[in-house]
């Protein structure tokens, strides 16, 4: 199946600009370009309103970590979703992924905590992981403070990588994580899966971008460390139920599918969706793309269904 027409129009526009590699140059310039693209939304009415959006902080290993709490029912007991934004560990922030958090609130009926973790290259591995785990552990250890009926993690791309790594750490520390929503996650930084070559150029995220992002984040660290490549964890059993969404025209497609297979083989409950007409980043394209909107609806519904069975 071809790329959805609306997304192909977007790709044609991006490819015509002949932009430099996203993660290969000055990080501040890359962040500003990414922010401008992410916040240029032609359909603002399609982003759900949320009753309360509050900034706060959680103590972290290198100082306070900023969080943003999205809440449609302040004070009510609700599921908590701790969300980690994507952007190759280099770009992306709370604002670029504001629409992601709002959609989770509406569709899942959850209180969402979005995490402003430290980014590479200024803060290489394990900084992003450490911050994401610090916030998650704090929420897990203080559920009453957040009126939590359950606690899950979610993230897209690099955020999916962080969510998968945090889910493994939560199990190893004896915490009962309710679910993990992994949206086109990066889980294996070593294996050259077929989708990497098939979708190496022309589909927004390119193979060179993946190499640059990994180099910027890892900076010589062992790529088999499960905090970087969760697929290399010693165990994948007894993890939180996983919902994994991948896109047909994404270099990371087979990466996410391989992780789903690894979880399934270990006996962890997993639901995998492969959306053949979509590209990397589709979770943020729901305001302009009907196929993306349908995919987001399905993934969020699956997460809600898992939480409702607890």
TrEMBL record:
The keyword Glycosyltransferase does not apply. This is Alpha/beta hydrolase fold domain-containing protein. InterPro entries: AB_hydrolase_3, AB_hydrolase_fold, GDXG_lipolytic_enzyme, Lipase_GDXG_HIS_AS, Lipase_GDXG_put_SER_AS. The keyword Hydrolase applies. Residues 81-283 form the Alpha/beta hydrolase fold-3 domain. It comes from Epidermidibacterium keratini. Coiled coil: none annotated. The active site is at 157. Belongs to the 'GDXG' lipolytic enzyme family. Keywords: Hydrolase. GO terms for molecular function: hydrolase activity.
């Amino acid at each position: 199946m071809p790329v959805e027409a609306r997304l192909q129009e977007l790709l044609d526009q991006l490819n015509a600009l002949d932009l430099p590699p996203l993660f290969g140059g000055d990080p501040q310039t890359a962040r500003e370009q990414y922010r401008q693209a992410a916040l240029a939304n032609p359909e603002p009415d399609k982003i759900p309103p949320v009753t309360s959006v509050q900034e706060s902080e959680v103590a972290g290993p290198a100082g306070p970590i900023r969080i943003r709490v999205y809440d449609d029912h302040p004070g009510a007991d609700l599921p908590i979703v701790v969300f980690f934004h994507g952007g190759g560990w280099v770009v992306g922030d709370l604002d670029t992924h504001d629409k992601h958090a709002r959609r989770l609130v509406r569709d899942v009926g959850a209180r969402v905590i979005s995490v402003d973790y430290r980014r590479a290259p200024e803060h290489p591995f394990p900084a992003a992981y450490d911050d994401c785990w610090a916030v998650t552990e704090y929420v897990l250890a203080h559920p009453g403070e957040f009126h939590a009926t359950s606690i899950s993690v979610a993230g897209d791309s690099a955020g999916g990588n962080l969510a998968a790594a945090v889910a493994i750490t939560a199990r190893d520390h004896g915490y009962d994580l309710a679910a993990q929503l992994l949206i086109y996650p990066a889980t294996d930084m070593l294996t050259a899966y077929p989708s990497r070559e098939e979708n190496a150029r022309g589909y927004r995220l390119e193979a060179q971008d993946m190499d640059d992002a990994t180099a910027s984040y890892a900076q010589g660290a062992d790529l088999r460390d499960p905090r970087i490549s969760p697929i290399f964890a010693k165990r994948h059993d007894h993890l939180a139920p996983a919902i994994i969404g991948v896109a047909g025209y994404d270099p990371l497609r087979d990466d996410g599918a391989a992780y789903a297979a690894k979880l399934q083989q270990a006996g962890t409950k997993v639901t995998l969706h492969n959306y053949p007409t979509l590209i990397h980043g589709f979770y943020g394209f729901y305001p302009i793309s009907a196929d993306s909107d349908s995919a987001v609806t399905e993934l969020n519904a699956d997460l809600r269904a898992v939480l409702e069975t607890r």
